[in-house]
Write a structure and sequence with these properties.
heterotrimer, A: about 625 residues, mainly alpha, 3 domains, two-stranded antiparallel ribbon, B: about 170 residues, 7 helices
């Protein structure tokens, strides 16, 4: 029963994918509906299984078959549905279904929408495989699969070369991370002889792990897996692909590059929490990387003028916060933030998509403004989500971010300060985007002004649902009584984190965070509403602002340090080595040709000659055999 | 006496074979070949292999020779059909065959056969009766296969010699 | 007649005879250009081998050699029949049985 349910759960999106791939062209209008249905089926089953596990408190384990069978090393195609993966499944399929619904409206006029929905379904399938994997290898299948879908969807409008480049960039950056993942996996397999989560966890609780070689191996595995996570979750130094990934259609940005796929890294680190708990140095590294990314991305976000880029940098920044939480061991806080972030970031992206859709493709906030009056639903939902991401009480983001900052404060004051600063900046630039987009006067062309319209129902309904979730999502983890940490306690490492005692310190910290957010909003209000500032054109930027606007020139740096040398090396190979090899190979070829041309003259077709040769040859053989 | 017969027969055999090979006219070749085969049958008789002698006469002079002659008749071959070969290739041919003979002789000499003792078991092994018995007991299956082979050869010959109907239509 | 003819003649004489006969066959194959004489030469070589088999059969006082000769005669008959029919169809197509004129094997 459970096996078949799990199979339907995982196969449903794949069937949708196959249907849209092969039959989508014929039933174009139905492709979106079918894709949405496929994901909805998965969502319903997820809810059912969630309820099962929630009541029984025992994870569902499905072993389909032995995949790789060696003498002392067996890997099965296993699925593990415990509290952690079910939580992920719920929001992946839930938000996935909403975004599919939204895409029906958004992609209505695209001529390749069957392909779009096919990829989207494929992505959901792989994402489910990632979170349901019972061992690292199955997770890795999903991990690679979502990377592939990300690539396909970023380059969905493949006729634009920039988009193709962005897709390639994402793929290659992910590949660097995947190499880390693989090495980490091999190391673990070498040390423990298994990749099964359950077995690994059991081995960790049994083995003393004091031997220095084992410890070194674990550190290596931990760092490598974390590198994999930085690739997928866009952390320093592998974050640059995510802003470029905004080349894809907006629903893709919402689903893959904000709500689900990029949280894969968080998922992995949480899954392997038992590993990271024994290597505190790596934990500290994670925390530092997370905090640095949060601050760095937030700084860049301050000056961006493309609405999707702003959201992209805020995603990177928020993911940094999550890693900060993971680094300080606050796994449930990180997961909590993943969930709330999925809600409000999906809502923000879909809202931005709605605006872009209404303005006929314009993404530049300098050319927006005053959209509020026309697109009221979009405005309200976007506003709610912005409040949530800024951490305003009582919206979802407040609780989850507060949880993270609280946990960080207990560990390291400096990291807390960095995280808080990043949060304040988040509040500022999110409201900057909001004010510039929805308030003031319209700054675009007359034509765009006429074109401006509210989006259809299929697009606004997901917005409303997500806005409600962004409002109420915080209830999952109210300080003092955190449902989510209690729910996750069985699968998280170490002693279950006791709920923070709500003392004066905690209230003060909450107050500080809230105050910071309000200050950020106030600055934004002052700059963009009262003074009606509009970000200047690209050329007029000066000083530090210019550096930030150009994203600290990180892309240029990578270009100069890595891409150019690789190009130089490859042109060296192409121009020198390949020519030499070509000469050698061609030489051998022409030599053979010449010899053959001469040798074929021997075959003159005269049977008499052949017969003489035959007799002489026979004599030679006889001589060799009987006389010599 | 027997030695004399052997040498006469051998001379006929080799001479007829040479004439077969060297005659210009194919019909003469065929006639000389009959002589050659008859002398080989004589050798068989000399060796007391009556059964084989009879079979040899029937097969070679009876069927093979008739076939050859019919073919020659059918093709209406005359001497002019065969132009002279270049002298160099004639020399090559002679040299090659001499080489072959030489190699075979040398191989035989090298082997140093021990041929001093001739067995004298006194058991009858080559009368028609004994051979018939052996053929139909020990070699029954190959014998049947030989008949199948001949049948197949017959069918094949008919197939090959049949005029191509398609070509005739064209 | 004597019990064993070979005792009087000597097996080596027969071996020399067959070697010579075989070489004459080879000479025919190489010397002539007419395919029909080629076939005859092949028959001569075959008969040289047959004769040798019979001689060894007598030498070993064993009937197996003669049975082999019998079978080889059957095969030779089939071979001649097929060979001649191929020859006839070659003549029909090419108008000649001189294999020096048939150069389709030229590579």
């Amino acid at each position: 029963m459970e096996t078949s349910l799990v199979l339907i759960l995982i196969l449903s999106p794949f069937i949708g994918f196959l249907y849209n791939l092969f039959a989508g062209k014929k039933t174009r209008e139905a492709s979106g509906v079918i894709a949405t249905l496929a994901v909805t089926v998965s969502f319903v089953i997820s809810v059912y299984l969630f309820q099962q596990v929630y009541v029984s408190k025992t994870p569902i384990v499905v072993h389909l078959f032995d995949w790789i069978s060696l003498e002392r090393f067996t890997i099965g195609l296993d699925f593990l549905l415990d509290q952690l993966s079910l939580l992920w499944l719920l929001f992946v399929t839930g938000i996935g279904a909403l975004i599919h619904l939204y895409s029906i409206g958004y992609m209505h006029d695209d001529e390749d929408k069957d392909r779009f929905f096919a990829y989207l379904n494929l992505f959901v399938g792989f994402m489910m495989m990632l979170v349901m994997g019972g061992n690292l290898l199955v997770t890795f299948i999903g991990w690679e699969g979502v990377g592939l879908c990300s690539y396909l969807l970023i380059g969905f409008w493949y006729k634009n070369q920039d988009y193709n480049d962005a897709a390639k960039k994402a793929f290659i950056m992910n590949r660097i991370g995947d190499l880390g993942f693989l090495i980490g996996m091999f190391t673990l397999a070498y040390i423990f002889g298994t990749l099964d989560y359950a077995h690994l966890k059991a081995d960790f609780s049994l083995a003393p792990l004091t031997s220095p070689t084992v410890f070194a191996g674990l550190t290596l595995a931990g760092v490598c897996l974390f590198i994999g996570a930085t690739g997928k979750s866009a952390q320093l130094p592998l974050y640059t692909w995510l802003p470029d990934a905004m080349a894809g259609p907006t629903p893709v940005s919402a689903l893959i590059h904000a709500a689900t796929m990029v949280t894969g890294g968080i998922f992995l680190v949480t899954r392997m929490g038992f590993l990271y708990n024994v290597i505190p140095d790596v934990q500290l590294l994670i925390a530092i990387v997370g905090a640095a990314t949060a601050l760095f991305a937030a700084t860049i976000g301050l000056m961006q003028t493309d609405i999707k880029k702003v959201l992209a940098y805020s995603t990177v920044s928020q993911l940094g916060l999550m890693f900060l939480a993971l680094g300080v061991g606050a796994y449930s806080a990180a997961v909590f933030h993943v969930v709330t972030h999925a809600f409000f970031k999906a809502c923000l992206f879909l809202g931005a998509g709605s605006v872009i859709h209404g303005l006929g493709g314009n993404q530049d906030i300098r050319k927006m403004g005053g959209v509020k009056s026309v697109m009221f639903v979009t405005f309200v939902t976007f506003f709610i989500a912005t409040l949530a991401i800024s951490g305003i009480f009582p919206f979802a983001g407040f609780f989850s971010k507060d949880e993270i900052l609280l946990s960080t404060f207990e560990h390291n004051k400096l990291l807390w300060a960095i995280g808080s600063l990043a949060s304040i900046m988040t509040a500022f630039y999110m409201f900057r985007a909001l004010f510039l987009t929805f308030f003031g006067k319209f700054r675009g062309t007359e034509q765009e002004k006429h074109h401006m319209h509210e989006s259809p129902k299929t697009m606004t309904i997901p917005l409303i649902v997500l806005a409600i979730l962004s409002t109420l999502g915080g209830l999952l983890g109210i300080p003092g009584y955190s449902w989510i940490s209690e729910y996750l306690a069985p699968v998280l490492p170490g002693a279950p984190a006791e709920a923070h005692h709500l003392g004066a310190l905690e209230y003060t910290l909450m107050g500080v965070a809230l105050l910071g957010a309000i200050v950020g909003i106030a600055i934004a209000y002052f700059l963009y509403i009262s003074k009606k500032n509009i970000p200047s054109a690209d050329e007029e930027k000066e000083g530090f602002g210019k550096i930030i606007y150009n994203k600290f020139y990180v892309d240029e740096l990578y270009n100069a340090l890595i891409v150019k040398p690789v190009y130089a090396l490859s042109s060296l190979f192409a121009n020198v080595f390949e020519k030499v090899i070509a000469y050698i190979v061609d030489g051998v070829g022409s030599l053979t040709g010449y010899i053959s041309t001469q040798a074929r003259l021997i075959q003159d077709g005269s049977v008499g000659t052949y017969l003489v040769a035959f007799v002489v040859g026979l004599c030679a053989i006889l001589t060799y055999l009987f006389i010599l | 006496m027997i030695t004399v017969i052997f040498y006469i027969l051998s001379a006929i055999t080799l001479g007829a074979a040479l004439l077969t090979v060297l005659s210009r006219n194919p019909i003469h070749s065929a006639i000389y070949m009959i002589v050659c085969f008859f002398s080989i049958a004589g050798h068989y008789m000399l060796l007391n292999a009556q059964f084989l002698a009879v079979v040899h006469v029937i097969v070679y002079t009876g069927s093979v020779m008739i076939l050859l002659l019919f073919t020659l008749m059918l093709l209406n071959l005359k001497e002019k059909h065969e132009p002279h070969k270049a002298i160099i290739s004639k020399i090559t041919a002679v040299l090659a065959s001499c080489l072959m003979a030489f190699v075979l002789f040398a191989a035989f000499m090298k082997a140093h056969p021990v041929i001093e003792q001739y067995k004298e078991t006194g058991v009858d092994f080559q009368s028609v009766k004994v051979l018939g018995n052996v053929l139909f007991t020990d070699y029954l299956v190959p014998f049947e296969f030989a008949s199948v082979l001949l049948l197949l050869a017959m069918i094949g010959v008919v197939m090959i010699s049949k005029k191509d109907l398609k070509q005739d239509v064209d | 007649m004597a019990e064993n003819v070979l005792k009087l003649i000597g097996i080596d004489s027969y071996i020399y005879l067959t070697i010579l006969l075989f070489s004459v066959g080879i000479l025919g194959v190489l010397f002539r250009r007419s395919m029909i004489v080629l076939l005859m030469s092949i028959e001569i070589m075959l008969n040289a081998v047959n004769l040798l088999l019979v001689v060894f059969s007598v030498y070993h006082q064993d009937s197996a050699g003669q049975v082999f000769v019998f079978f080889s005669m059957a095969v030779a008959a089939a071979e001649v029949a097929v060979g001649l029919s191929i020859l006839v169809s070659i003549f029909r197509n090419a108008g000649s049985i001189d294999f020096a004129t048939l150069r389709n094997l030229k590579g």
